Amino acid sequence: MDTLEKALRGLGFADNEIEIYTSLLELREASYTELAKKTGIKRTSLYTMVSKMQERGIIQAHVDSRTLSAIPPTELFSLLQGKVLQLHKLIPQLSALGTKERAISRVKFYLGSENIKRAYFEEERPIPSVKDRLVYIITGAKVWTEFWEHHDPEFSDMYNKELKRRGYKIFTLSSGEVSPPFDRKTVPEYNMQVRFLPADYAYDFDLEIRPNSIVISDLVSEQPYAIKIISTELAQALASFFRYTWSVTQ
């Protein structure tokens, strides 16, 4: 068991998560009460841990029977393999960033809706001066709206208002099918201006550019995720590209 625990820990499992996952494999299917008895973890703590593991796709909840089960090891392997493949696709882009004279400070990866919220809400230092508080966004507006309506209907409104509270001006290029509030050219409640990309330029991802960082989120994948790159140089380069695109877009 020590070897198994060590291997799972190396794959990012916390100690309690190892206990939960292996216990569910043994039980095949269990209620919270049964799982708490098997693992010795208090039910109040168990709810939070199980929720996080569900976000990562490791545990499945069965609504009809009100029970939980762990995904089989073969599916766990496929899930982890998928993450490796996603990272592999990013190697050329990330490697190219590393060839610059000044390396980027950090790259952060966020998996699941709750962690994606953190990617957007976290303010990276140094905090920009008031005149530099500009946010540039390229978004598949319908994808963004539908994703948050499903996971947290209040998030999009709350986030945009928080940016306004922090003193940011928001410029949004909306692609694909539009939906409120991205169907207006001016959204005063968010201090936002919107322009619309041609129909040929429809994107499913969301790109947000701040003065010292960028966030790219994929909300249509089976495992939604976001990547944040903290780099003033990269952010400024993309901001220049955005401003040009904005100038030629209606």
The poorly predicted ranges are none
Under the CATH scheme, the architecture of the largest domain is 2-Layer Sandwich
Our measurement of the CA-to-CA distance between the termini, rounded to an integer number of angstroms, reads: 62 Å
Radius of gyration: 21 Å
Coarse shape: elongated
Say which CATH homologous superfamily of the largest domain is assigned: Endonuclease Chain A
Strand order of the largest sheet: 3-10-9-8-4-5-7-6
Fraction of residues in helix: 40-55%
Number of strands: 10
CATH class type of the largest domain: Alpha Beta
SSE order: HHHHEEHEHEHHEEEEEEH
- Number of helices, where a helix is a run of at least 4 consecutive DSSP H or I residues: 9
Strand count, sense and closure of the main sheet? 8 strands, mixed
How would you classify the helix and strand content by structural class? alpha+beta
What portion of residues belong to β-strands? 15-25%
Q: What is the number of independent domains?
A: 2
Rounded mean pLDDT score:
83
CATH topology of the largest domain: Endonuclease, Chain A
Key words describing this protein structure:
eight-stranded mixed β-sheet; 2 domains; Arc Repressor Mutant, subunit A; alpha+beta; Endonuclease, Chain A; 250 residues
Structural summary, described in words:
This protein folds into two domains: 2-71, Winged helix-like DNA-binding domain superfamily/Winged helix DNA-binding domain (Arc Repressor Mutant, subunit A, Orthogonal Bundle); 104-247, Endonuclease, Chain A (2-Layer Sandwich), CATH 3.30.870.10. It contains nine helices and ten strands. It has helices at residues 2-10, 15-27, 32-39, 43-55, 73-98, 113-121, 141-151, 155-165, 232-247; strands spanning 59-62, 67-70, 106-111, 134-140, 169-175, 186-187, 192-196, 205-209, 213-218, 225-230. It starts with a helix and ends with a helix.
